[in-house]
Structures are given as structure tokens and as C-alpha cells.
Amino acid sequence: MRDTSYINAGTGLILGIESSCDETAAAVVRGGTEALSNVVASQMNLHANYGGVVPELASREHLRNIVPVVREAMDRAGVGFNDLDAIAVTEGPGLAGALLVGITYAKALTFGVDKPLIGVNHLEGHIHAVLMEARQRAETPMELPLLALVVSGGHTHLYLAEQKGEDRWRYRNVGRTVDDAAGEAYDKVAKLLGLGYPGGPWIDALARRGNPQAVPFRFAQIKPRIHRNGIVPANKKAPPKHDGPSFDFSFSGIKTAVLRYIETNHMREATAERRAKLAEHPEWKPDTDEAAALCDAQTLDLIASFQHAVVGNLLRQTFAAAETFGARGIVVSGGVAANSELRRRFQAEAGRRGLPVAFPSLALSTDNAAMIAAAAWQKLVAGDFAADDLGPAPQLRLGGG
Ligand code: KG4
Ligand code: ZN
Questions:
Q1: Residue 165 belongs to a domain
Q2: pLDDT digit string (tens) for 263-302?
């Protein structure tokens, strides 16, 4: 490990690099709060043709983008490499090949410009995106313990953030999905309905045109995941390791229920027509009116009911966990945090309970590097630097769960 004892946090000027999934991103953030630049090269259009992220394509695109994206982030921030106090990079979780591009580049850079390297957990990044913006708005800092819902295409996790020592936080994973992530359910249901990718924004927009009470979806109680003999079945994820109850999620059932509804109600043909129409014009980005015109009333009702049920489930689990663990505030982040119904209902419920709730701006709710640089700030202050052998950790967890 390199000797970093001579380093102090300086002005805390950190270059963050993120390449865990389908966005190549770089940002320069000062003191964990002030984003001097935030550059994101999205591969969304590339993967949209396949209805999901293709790992090999993602790595290749990251390779193509990483140098210009970092250069642009430095240029926009108006700083040179020598001005930096550290370089931070996402170490996981994510796609191995995609992570490797960011990590390799960040490591080469730290050697080249002789700056320390900080490895950041992508999930902690999502949480810090929200806290960074709350600080920018000069809001009263959120008090710990804090409950964070990280909800995206790959994650649906509840974390309890607690103080550990003077300048560190400790995370406890108190809830997680036992199967699909919420964003994944949005994407899969959108695909079933012949809508575009990613499905979240389509469903969010179209849900406003339907009746959310039309289809009464139900979420079953999730059974404990450990077999009687204590062995976790091979196809199941290991349960979080912490004392106390967990507030888990399951979204694969509602996806199957939507499929069944489509079949029972003879909606297959209309769905195939919609899919074909959109496939004819892959570059077409319909506005809400145009998208709604592709759907009949029954489809819009199904979409509205699906969203109402998913948001309701996220809301119930989150607020129940907040109450159980005595959280003093709630942070929601990840791609699904952009959802308008989710924001509205979480704000209303938090208001009723007198709990502060914070969301990231739309720009920081999806993957970006400002959140990585912001999360690295605490680590810089604590002198928590990465070892020379830092490598991709595709299954990296936060808080042991
Ligand atoms: O955090 P993110 O950009 O990438 C990861 O998955 O890590 O999240 C992307 C996910 C996708 O599943 C997408 O459908 C969903 O976030 N999403 C939304 C909305 N915008 C994006 N889901 C619901 N409502 C939205 N407005
Ligand atoms: Zn993410």
C-alpha cells in the first residue's frame, strides 16, 4: 500500500469516476458538496436496442468514453490534475468488465499524477448524492440514524446509516429484494406491454392517464429465506446479517400478475402492435400524448395500477423500517427515485409523520460520478485510501447485507 501519511484533506478536491453499469461518468467535487463538473456519457440508446444492458457492449463503450469524459470533467471544472486531493472510483457493485475500465483508468491516473486513490461503493454513492444536494441547499443536515432506500434497476435496498466514531458511518442492510429490483420490474413490465426501454419513465408518464385502482395487485408477505436446516437454497440470495427484523421486497410476483392479466384480458395483440410500431421507428421518442395514443384505456389502467402497487409497497416497507429503527430522516435514491408518484406519496407520508425526506435532483438520481466523489469525501477526511490491488467487486455489499 502506498504511503499516504503526508496527505491532508486539503480543499477536498476529488475527481470521481463511475463505470459500474451503462454510464461512463466523471465529476469534480469540492469538499463533498460543491460539484464543479458532472459529466455523464450514457449508453442508454445503445442498450435500448436489446431491451437491457449488454455487458460486453458496456465495457467497450466505457473504454471508448472514459478518456474524453474525464478530460471534459476536468476542463469544465477548470482544474488540473495537480490541484486534486484524491481520485475516487466505483469499486462495485456492478458489471465486472465495466467496473474494470474505470478502476484501471483511475489507478493509472493516480500513479501518473501521484494522488491517492479512494474506492467507493456505488450504493453509498447513491445515498451521498442526496446528502450532497441537501447540503448545497443549505438545509439543516439530516440527523443520524438515517434510513436510505436505494431503488434502481439493480437494487432495492434499505440501509440504516448510523454514526460510527467521529467521522465514519456504519451501514446496516435492513431490507432488500429477494428477487427482482423495483426498476427491473418497471423495465420488464414495460417490455411485456410493448413499451420502450428503460421502462420506468414510460410507465411513470403513462400512469397519470389511467385509474390506479382498476387492477387490485397484492403483495404477499415474504417468507423467511432460510430453510429449516439453515441452508440458503442455491437460487436464493443470502439474507442480510444483522440483528432485528428485515423489511424485504419481492417484485417478481407482480410482473407475473401483469403477464397473466394481459393474457386473460386478450391484450396480447394490441401489445404486439404497439411493440411493432415502436420498433419501426427506433429513433422516435414519443411525448406522453403520443405514447398514450398507442395505448387503450385498459392498458393505461393496468399501467397506473402496477405503479400504484409498486410505489405503495416501497412506501409501506420504508416507513415501517423507519419506525422500527427510529430513523430521524429518510433518503431515497437510485433511478426509480425519479418516479413522480413515488416522490409525491413519500413526501405526503413523511409530512404526516413529521420526518424529513430527501430525493436527488433528476440529474443525480441516475448513475453519475458526482455522487462517487461526494461519498469519497468522508473517506478522504478519515484517510481511508484504497490498496494498490483494488479491483472490481461486482457483488460488493454495503453494511453486510
Ligand atoms: O440508478 P439507475 O440509473 O441504474 C441502475 O440500475 O443502477 O436506474 C435505472 C432504473 C431503470 O430500471 C429505470 O427503468 C428506472 O431506474 N427509472 C424509473 C424512472 N426513471 C428511471 N423507474 C420509475 N420511474 C421513473 N421515472
Ligand atoms: Zn446506480
A1: no
A2: 999 999 999 999 999 999 888 889 999 999 999 999 999 9
Total domain count for the chain?
Answer: 2
- pLDDT tier at 237, thresholds 50, 70, 90: low
Task: Kindly state whether residues 197 and 333 are assigned to the same domain.
Answer: yes
Residue numbers of the domain that contains 221 = 182-355
In this structure, are 74 and 115 located in the same domain? yes
Instruction: Map the chain to HEC letters.
Output: CCCCCCCCCCCCEEEEEECCCCEEEEEEEECCCEEEEEEEEECHHHHHCCCCCCHHHHHHHHHHHHHHHHHHHHHHHCCCHHHCCEEEEEEECCCHHHHHHHHHHHHHHHHHHCCCEEEEEHHHHHHHHHHHHHHHCCCCCCCCCEEEEEECCCCEEEEEEEEECCCEEEEEEEEEECCCCHHHHHHHHHHHCCCCCCHHHHHHHHHCCCCCCCCCCCCCCCCCCCCCCCCCCCCCCCCCCCCCCCCCECCHHHHHHHHHHHHHCCCHHHHHHHHHHHHHCCCCCCCHHHHHHCCCHHHHHHHHHHHHHHHHHHHHHHHHHHHHCCCCCEEEECHHHHCHHHHHHHHHHHHHHCCCEECCCHHHHCCCCHHHHHHHHHHHHHCCCCCCCCCCCCCCCCCCC
* Whether residue 187 is found in the same domain as residue 329: yes
Of 21, 126, 151, 186, the one to substitute when testing ligand 1's pocket (max ligand atoms within 8 A of C-beta) is: 186
Report the predicted TM-score, pTM, of the whole model to 2 decimal places.
0.87
For residue 246, the domain's CATH number is 3.30.420.40
pLDDT digits (tens, 9 = 90+) for 148-186: 999 999 889 999 999 887 777 899 999 999 999 999 999
Residue bearing the CA closest to ligand 1, atom 13: 200
Atom of ligand 1 nearest to the CA of 184: 12
